[in-house]
Amino acid sequence: MNDHNKSTEIENIPCEICLQEIPQSEAKIIEVDDYVVNFCGLECYEKWRAEEPEKK
Predict the structure, then answer these.
(1) Closest CA to 40 of 24, 28, 52, 49
(2) Distance in angstroms (rounded) separating the CA atoms of residues 23 and 15
(3) Sign of the torsion formed by the C-alpha atoms of 23, 25, 28 and 31
(4) pTM, two decimal places
């Protein structure tokens, strides 16, 4: 049996800020307390950090 029929589809996930679909392997992943957020790049990450209320 050939393995040529196996799917090579890349799993995409949305950026937390702009919701742009990005390959999971390329996402900048930040673990925050009990969940994980994904960013397409530093610009979106910095925007997210600026909007997050400061933790006490």
Answers:
(1) 28
(2) 10
(3) positive
(4) 0.57
